[in-house]
């Protein structure tokens, strides 16, 4: 009679795959995040469309609050999910990645209608950050389930290190685009 696999045996069986895939996820997240940095790229983009320091400062508030506040409300919902991977993998595209793809729209509108471009930009950034905050708890819970405590430090260390190196390369590429192409084309690209 075959015994059913245990939770621990499933973690061990899939460890190398999960470790590798999630390391690359961290690296590519760091790379992609460098192109839409809320500390450098996005405030300069806004400053090209408005002189209002209030609006430019609002960006920082949206980014921080949008990421942190939804996590408080998503915790109970996440706890009831039978499979945590569904939220970050399947829903993450619509809640977090789609608004980043749509950021080309405010860049396209920036020269013809900067006020509308600013409004659409702030809505898309809020959508992205709130969406990221909603799925963040499920992502963190998923990682806690697939990595035993003795592997988490190494995982986060390597993922963050790789992400920062990739982010350095991405930031260099973003700077090149912004220098080579006039506003708003560098941002669109």
What would you note in describing this structure?
The protein is an all-alpha fold and 189 residues long. The protein has one domain (15-188). It contains eight helices and no strands. Helix 3 (53-80) packs parallel to helix 6 (114-146) and helix 4 (86-101) packs antiparallel against helix 6 (114-146). The longest helix has 33 residues, at 114-146. The model has no long low-confidence stretch (mean pLDDT 92).
Short description:
The chain is 82% helix and 0% strand.
What key attributes describe this structure?
8 helices, mainly alpha, about 190 residues
Low-confidence stretches: none
Query: Which shape, going by the Cα principal axes?
Result: elongated
Q: Using only CA atoms, what is the Rg?
A: 19 Å
Count of distinct strands: 0
Which class do the helix and strand fractions yield? mainly alpha
Mean pLDDT rating: 92
Percentage beta strand: under 5%
Number of helices: 8
Taking the sheet with the most strands, its summary is: none
Order of helices and strands: HHHHHHHH
Cα(first) to Cα(last) distance is 59 Å
Q: Indicate the percent of residues in helices.
A: over 70%
Number of individual domains = 1
């Amino acid at each position: 009679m075959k015994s059913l696999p245990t939770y621990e045996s499933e973690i061990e069986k899939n460890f190398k795959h999960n470790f590798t895939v999630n390391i690359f996820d961290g690296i590519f997240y760091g790379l992609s995040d460098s192109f839409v940095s809320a500390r450098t790229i996005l405030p300069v983009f806004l400053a090209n469309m408005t002189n209002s320091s209030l609006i430019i400062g609002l960006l920082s508030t949206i980014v921080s609050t949008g990421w942190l506040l939804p996590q408080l409300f998503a915790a109970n919902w996440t706890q009831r999910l039978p499979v945590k991977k569904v939220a970050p993998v399947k829903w993450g595209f619509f809640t977090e990645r789609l608004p980043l793809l749509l950021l080309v729209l405010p860049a396209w509108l920036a020269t013809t209608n900067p006020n509308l471009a600013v409004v659409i930009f702030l809505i898309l950034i809020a959508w992205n950050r709130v969406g990221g905050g909603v799925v963040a708890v499920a992502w963190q819970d998923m990682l806690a389930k697939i990595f035993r405590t003795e592997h988490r430090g190494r995982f986060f260390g390597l993922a963050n290190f790789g992400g920062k190196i990739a982010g350095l390369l991405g930031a260099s590429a973003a700077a090149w685009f912004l220098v080579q192409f006039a506003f708003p084309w560098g941002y669109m690209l």
